[in-house]
Structure formats: structure tokens, C-alpha cells
Design brief:
The structure holds two protein chains of two kinds. By secondary structure, chain A is an alpha+beta fold. In chain A, helix 12 (444-454) packs antiparallel against helix 14 (519-545). Chain B has a single domain, classed as Rossmann fold (3-Layer(aba) Sandwich), CATH 3.40.50.10150. Chain B contains four helices and seven strands. Chain B has a seven-stranded mixed sheet, sandwiched between helices. In chain B, helix 1 (55-68) runs parallel beside helix 3. The A-B interface holds A 103-105, 142-148, 170-175, 178, 189, 191, 353-354, 475-478, 493, 495-497, 499-502, 512, 514, 516 and B 1-2, 4, 6-11, 64, 67-70, 98, 113, 115-117, 120-122, 137, 141, 145-146, 149-151, 153.
């Protein structure tokens, strides 16, 4: 009879299982525990976390540390992943020909077309001859108070000037529009109003509340307003594109102005396969990149064109990996890449109202091999520290399968999906055959990166929280509406800082999100990011390990590790895999631990099986 | 979002007339924001904040901020206290939207909501010397957004460690003066006429 411990060091958590092994060989599990991994996985800093969780678990089982006879350490998944993102399109405005933005509160509504005219030209409306006699768009800088401006415009209207619309620098659009005898559209919060050219034909459109501009986001609409030729209409497409979905917009026709939506030469990626090398431009988009990758497989390394964005991106990842693994740069080989397209808000180059337009960006997740040496070093120092023998107890894929097989209702042939921050791992086991496993780039961190960029968040941590917690809207201090539309009431008022905010529901705590995105938008971005990275990679991984690359040949799929703890991913996966006639669900290791502790449990089972075989 | 960082004080009104039009009643329209002034605000004594900003100009900016968000301001005076928090909460309980702004004559301001405890307002602007007219405009705008159920970013505030030693004594004088006008009467509705 002996007491042994299985220890699984993951990127974020360290898990432990303690078992008593009878002479007959089968293990009796006594306790389990988990804690945050201290330091980067595979480094000496892990030791303090391991020792702590070992002590806790031993105490829970009422056993002295001295009685521990053997510690089995996982042979870590031999990959580390990293992510990077570059935008591949940009919108450039030359000669200030367009203002398209979403001020909180534009004034009035409708469309006005006229010559851009400074408000000072309307001021002396007593001398009739100096007043403009054609339709005008009035330009109001911030040093005109709203009442003064409204007064000047009203007098000009009364004197017969055809004021059709206005462009305002301050946040005064509604205030001015409310004080005029007739309803005119006013676009406000145009920060750099001095850049608006005067005496040019311009069109201002303000959509009714809840709508977006119609005329100015339609190339033919712009052509109609400015009487453009068919050739000129071709040139306004980028303008129309940039104005889609906005509530207010201005387009100014200047002789040489131009709005370009252009591709940034982001460089090309070279996939070096065992059989052939292929190049692909980053701006070709994620699908083309993934297709090229599929043609090249099996992959031996990846390189980015030097001196370009993508070159920098890939080298940066390689450098990080070299630092972590303490290998030389040349020895760090990239084994997998996942490319994902996303739409990120970017400030328009040359814009005059600090406009944003939605640009295309490509995110890359890459993965490199590490080696066994790292864990051996951890095992050695751990052994010294606790004065107990420590062994590496078998590949993570095998042990995870053994752990997952303790789930009630499961059987071989079985496949598992184990996802963490850096990679999606899958393994498949059939009786009498060795375990097949695969590691793919792109997992939790990639999802966080997509959420961060698509929502334009400054901090990665905020995106991380959005990824793992459901949302709610605080509608009053006594009730919130969850993202599934259900309402929850409270007897005691919530914190005043939460009033009206979109919050994350984390256990019993609410964390406000500082952004002006609606709950629906955040939820869509979050789910799309999970779908595009985690779901897609899970399917890709299952295809690779299943016999003849067909998912239908799998019978049971169990989700273990952190993926299983996500509040929506398991359901998304189950839903997706139902169409393949597969039993897919979250593992329930040792009938009660859920998706956690599979590897730690598997380490002990593996050890017992080996003892059996030896005996 | 562009903030009204620079001056909008072109036409800073200096004077106003406040007319009492009866007891302030419970509002029934959800598109109003109540602005409650403290007992000495506006038509008593100096008619300006400790920084010298005319009370009339402050009210006009707060009104403008609310109007820009297409809501309606309603002005009342709370007599029973000189304490900003209690004035604000009294006003919020009278407000159809449940949102109110309260201002003391020295310029200190907050945004309150009717379900809150007196000392936990939605936003508090404790350092009057650091508030300018564009800040008051923004306060009006934020209050209106809360009333709409939006979640505005709080109005940015500067924290000047020197304002305490420089202004504390003056602030105390303002507060003492404010407290002298307190009387145990119900809040009254005010009608305002800005004079140019």
C-alpha cells in the first residue's frame, strides 16, 4: 500500500490528485485540489504553487506529507502559443472631403445641400447685398455660443438666405436646431472644423433616431446630390462605405479631394512544409491563409516577409517563445498557425471629426514546440524541495484520456478536446492502438485578442473578463436584466456605480464594463470570437485525429480542461457535434470533478497500469 | 467622443430671475431631469460660485446639456438642508426619471438617483474650484443620459491637491451662509428667466 500524487501543471492552474494504491494495484482516490499556476508553466517558479496545493490536498485526505511516496508530474503539452494582430486596410481622407461620425446627439433631421459658408458671413444680415443668395451649409465654430449662433441663423433665414443645414464644432447640434424656426439637420462634435473647406458644395444628412444615413451611404445617393458622372460615382464608393451605419454625415465636394480605402501592404507569409513551400499575402484574408496552410501540411516552419508587418509579427512571437523556452531563435519552429479575420474600429487618417471607420484586420495565432527538458528540471527541483521522488508520468494526451475515461457513460473509442490559453489539444484512443494526438494554435488568448480589438478595448484583462463571464444590464438599482432577457430582483440596492451599466456577472459580484457598446454588441462579439477560434479549432483538431479525417468515425467526445468550464462553449460544441452523430459533452472526471483534474487522475491510473504490466 | 474642452462661454449670462411657482410636485414624465438648488443659490447674496462663475451661467449650461440629449430640465429649490447629498436625493425622489442634479451656491454638484443612499450618488463633483462651465454642461448631459438608461462615462475630473488649502476656508464660509437660509419648508418649483 502506498500514497502517490498526480500533479498537472497547466498554463493557468495546477491540479493535484492523491490516491492510495493497494497491493492489488487499483487506486483509491482520496482527495484532489487545484490552485493558480505560479510563474510560466515549466519553470522553477511552479514549485511554490505545487507544494502549496500538495499540502492542502494531503491535509484534506488527513495524511502527513511524510507518507507521500511518489509524485507523478505531467509531461507538459509540448507546445506554447502566442497571438498577434495587424490591420490590413485603412481609410485615408485627403483634402477634408468627408465627415462621417456618430456624435451622441446630432440636431434636427433630413438632408441639406449647399455651399459651405462660415457663420460670420451671415452676421451682418442688415446689409442685404452681402448675403449669399444660393443655398448654404452654415459652419459654426465653438466660439459661437448656441444661442448666438441660433440667433444669427434665424435672422439670416428671415432675411431670405437659404440655410439648408449646419456643421457645428461643439456639442450644440440639438440646441441650435431647437432654436430655429424650421427643422434643419445639424452635425455636431466636428472637432477640427477649421479644416472644413469653405465655399464648396456639401451635403449634410442626419437620420431619424434609430436609423442610419440612407442617401450619403449610397453611391447613387451621393451622385444624385452632387450630379456626378458615372465615372465620378465610381470614386465615391469608399466615402459611401465609410458612412454606412452612421447616424449623421457630411460629404463635401472639393476639386481634388479623395477618400481612399486602401490595403496596407502587410507582407506575405511563407509556409514551409515537409513537401513544399507556399507564399500567401496577409491581406488575402484568413480563409486564403488557412487554405494555403492546408495544402502545405505537414508544416515544418513559418516565416514572415522581412521588413513588413507580418514579418515583425512572426518574429516577435518567435522571440517570445525563444525567451520562454531558452532556445536559440533558429531552433524555434512554428508548428501551426490559425488566421482569423476581424473588424476593428480605426481612426480615419486625415479625418476632421476624429471619425472611426471599421477596418479589416487579421489575427494570427501561432504555436511552437517546446521540449521535455523543461519539465525534467521542474521534477528535479520539486523532488529536492519536498524530499520525495518525482517522476514524469507519461504524455499529457494519454493521461488526459485515462482521466476522461472515468466519466460515467463514456467508452472507447473516445476522443478528448482539451483547450487552454495557447492551444487546442485533441487526442483519440481506440482499443489496441496507440493514442493519437494533435495540438493546434489558437485558443483562449486568441479569443480574448479578438474581443479586445473588435470592441476597441484598451486593456487585455477587460477582454479576458468579458470572455469568461455572462453579461447583464443594470436597469435599476433593484433589478438587472441578464443577457438571456430574464430579470433578477434584489432586496438591497446595488452599488451606485453600477447604475445603468452593462455589467459582467461574476459569481455574486457585478463588474461594470467601461465602454459605450450595448450588451447585444458585446455578446455577439464574444460568441463570434469563440465560434471562429474555439469551435473551428475543435472541429479542425477532431478532423485531424479521427480515422481517415472524418469526424463521423468518432463515437464519444469529452471536453476536459478549461474549455469545459466555459459557460457557453460546451453547449456550442455539443450543438455543433450533434450533426455528426457523436456523443459530445463535458467530461465528469471520477464522477464528480467535472472537466478538471483529468490529467492528474490519469497520471495515477497510468502509473497503476504500468505497475500491473510490470508485475 | 469629443469633449467640450474649450470655452463655450461666449455669451455667459450673468443674471437671472428665479420665480417661485408653488410647491414642487412629484414629476410624472420620465423624460425630465430635476435640478435642485440649495437655499442660497441664485438670488441670494453674491449670485456666483466661490470661483466667481455666475450661478445663472451654470444653470444655463446644465439646462443646455440636458436639452442636447433631448430631455427636459425642471428646476426646484430644496429648503430643508444645505447638504448637497440630501438636496440631491430629495430632488431625485421628485424627478419623473428618478435622476436629479443638485448644486450648492459655492458650486459643488452631484448627480443623484432616487433609489440610492444619500451619500452614494451616481456622480459627485466635490471640488468646486475645479469645475468650469464646460464641466457643468457635461454634468447636465450625463444626468440626461442616466435618465435615458444609457451608461455614460463619468465626467472627467481634475484633482488639485492645492485646492483644499486654498479654498477650504472660503468653502466653509459659503456653506455657513448657505445653512443660514435653511428653513423647514417643502421644496418649491422655480421658474427661471435668464437675462442677457
Amino acid at each position: 500500500m502506498s500514497i502517490i500524487a498526480g500533479v498537472d501543471i497547466g498554463n493557468s492552474t495546477t491540479e493535484v490528485a492523491i490516491a492510495r494504491i493497494e497491493d492489488g494495484g487499483s487506486p483509491e482516490f482520496l482527495s484532489s485540489g487545484s490552485t493558480m499556476t505560479t510563474g510560466i508553466k515549466g519553470t522553477a517558479e511552479n514549485i511554490s504553487g505545487i507544494v502549496q496545493v500538495l499540502k492542502e490536498s494531503m491535509e484534506a485526505a488527513s495524511i502527513n506529507m511524510e507518507d507521500l511516496e511518489l509524485v507523478l508530474l505531467n509531461e507538459a503539452t509540448p507546445v506554447i502559443g502566442d497571438v498577434a494582430m495587424e490591420t490590413v486596410t485603412e481609410t485615408v481622407v485627403t483634402e477634408s472631403s468627408m465627415v462621417g461620425h456618430n456624435p451622441g446627439s446630432p440636431g434636427g433631421e433630413g438632408i441639406g445641400v449647399g455651399q459651405t459658408t462660415h457663420i460670420r458671413d451671415l452676421e451682418d444680415s442688415d446689409s442685404d447685398d452681402s448675403l449669399p443668395d444660393e443655398p448654404i451649409i452654415v459652419i459654426v465654430p465653438q466660439d459661437y455660443d448656441f444661442e448666438v449662433a441660433a440667433d444669427i441663423i434665424t435672422r439670416a433665414l428671415e432675411a431670405g438666405v437659404e440655410v439648408k443645414a449646419g456643421i457645428v464644432q461643439g456639442d450644440d447640434g440639438v440646441l441650435i436646431a431647437n432654436r430655429l424656426p424650421e427643422a434643419l439637420p445639424f452635425v455636431d462634435e466636428v472637432a477640427h472644423i477649421e479644416k472644413v473647406p469653405l465655399d464648396m458644395l456639401a451635403a449634410v444628412e442626419v437620420a431619424p433616431q434609430g436609423r442610419a444615413v440612407q442617401q450619403l451611404s449610397n453611391p447613387y445617393g451621393i451622385a444624385t446630390l452632387f450630379s456626378l458622372s458615372s465615372e465620378e460615382t465610381g470614386h465615391v464608393i469608399p466615402i459611401a462605405k465609410a458612412l454606412i451605419g452612421l447616424r449623421s454625415a457630411v460629404v463635401i465636394r472639393t476639386p481634388e479631394s479623395d477618400v481612399e480605402s486602401k490595403q496596407i501592404p502587410a507582407g506575405s507569409i511563407t509556409f514551409m512544409g515537409e513537401n513544399q513551400n507556399l507564399d500567401i499575402e496577409l491581406e488575402a484574408g484568413a480563409d486564403a491563409i488557412m487554405d494555403t496552410l492546408a495544402k502545405v501540411e505537414p508544416l515544418s516552419d513559418v516565416q514572415g516577409e522581412s521588413g513588413t508587418n507580418v514579418g515583425g509579427m512572426i518574429e516577435r512571437v518567435r522571440q517570445t517563445m525563444a525567451d520562454v523556452t531558452e532556445k536559440s531563435l533558429e531552433d524555434v519552429k512554428i508548428r501551426d498557425v490559425l488566421a482569423v479575420d476581424c473588424q476593428v474600429p480605426q481612426q480615419v487618417e486625415g479625418g476632421i471629426a476624429d471619425e472611426f471607420s471599421t477596418e479589416t484586420a487579421t489575427g494570427l495565432a501561432v504555436m511552437v514546440d517546446t521540449d521535455r527538458l523543461l519539465m525534467e528540471r521542474v521534477a528535479e527541483s520539486l523532488s529536492e524541495k519536498i524530499d520525495t521522488p518525482v517522476e514524469l508520468g507519461g504524455a499529457e494526451a494519454n493521461t488526459a484520456i485515462l482521466g476522461a475515461l472515468t466519466t460515467p457513460g463514456i467508452d472507447v473509442p473516445v476522443a478528448i478536446i482539451d483547450g487552454g490559453a495557447g492551444s487546442v489539444d485533441a487526442a483519440q484512443f481506440q482499443k489496441g492502438k496507440p493514442v493519437e494526438h494533435v495540438h493546434l494554435a489558437g485558443a483562449g488568448n486568441m479569443v480574448t485578442l479578438l474581443i479586445q480589438n473588435e470592441l476597441g478595448l484598451e486593456r487585455f484583462e477587460v477582454a479576458e473578463q468579458i470572455k469568461i463571464n455572462p453579461l447583464a444590464k443594470v436597469e435599476s438599482l433593484f433589478h438587472i436584466r441578464h443577457e438571456d432577457n430574464s430579470v433578477q430582483f434584489f432586496d438591497d440596492p446595488l452599488d451606485s456605480g453600477l447604475f445603468g451599466r452593462v455589467v459582467l456577472v461574476k459569481d455574486d459580484e457585478f463588474i461594470p464594463i467601461e465602454s459605450d457598446h450595448t450588451l447585444d454588441r458585446i455578446r455577439t462579439v464574444r460568441q463570434e470570437a469563440k465560434r471562429r477560434v474555439l469551435l473551428r479549432n475543435s472541429i479542425r483538431a477532431l478532423e485531424r485525429i479521427s480515422p481517415s479525417n472524418n469526424i463521423r468515425f468518432l463515437n464519444f467526445v469529452a471536453i476536459v480542461g478549461r474549455f469545459g468550464l466555459d459557460f457557453e462553449l460546451p453547449q456550442m460544441l455539443t450543438n455543433e457535434l450533434i450533426s455528426f452523430d457523436i456523443v459530445a459533452g463535458v467530461a465528469n472526471v471520477r464522477e464528480g470533478l467535472g472537466p478538471t483534474n483529468a490529467v492528474a487522475t490519469g497520471l495515477i491510473i497510468n502509473y497503476c497500469q504500468q505497475q500491473d504490466e510490470a508485475a | 467622443m469629443s469633449d467640450e474642452g474649450t470655452n463655450q462661454q461666449q455669451q455667459a449670462v450673468e443674471e437671472m430671475e428665479l420665480e417661485e411657482v408653488g410647491e414642487a410636485e412629484l414629476g410624472d414624465s420620465s423624460d425630465e431631469v430635476v435640478i435642485a438648488v440649495a437655499p442660497a443659490f441664485g438670488d441670494q447674496g453674491k449670485k456666483q460660485t466661490m470661483l466667481g462663475i455666475p450661478h445663472a451661467a451654470i444653470l444655463r449650461e446644465i439646462f443646455a446639456g440636458i436639452e442636447e440629449e433631448e430631455l427636459k430640465p425642471r428646476l426646484i429649490r430644496v429648503w430643508r438642508s444645505a447638504d448637497l447629498a440630501f438636496i440631491g436625493l430629495d430632488a431625485a425622489k421628485l424627478s419623473g426619471s428618478g435622476i436629479a442634479i443638485s448644486i450648492q451656491s459655492r458650486g459643488t454638484t452631484l448627480i443623484h438617483q432616487r433609489d440610492l443612499l444619500p451619500l452614494t450618488p451616481l456622480e459627485l463633483f466635490p471640488q468646486a474650484p475645479n469645475l468650469d462651465l464646460s464641466a457643468y454642461r457635461h454634468i447636465g448631459k450625463n444626468a440626461a443620459q442616466y435618465a435615458k438608461g444609457d451608461s455614460p462615462s463619468p465626467v472627467p475630473q481634475t484633482n488639485d491637491p492645492m485646492s483644499r488649502p486654498m479654498w477650504q476656508a472660503i468653502a466653509a464660509v459659503f456653506h455657513i451662509r448657505e445653512a443660514e437660509f435653511v428653513k423647514q419648508e417643502k421644496p418649491v418649483e422655480l421658474k427661471v428667466n435668464f437675462e442677457k
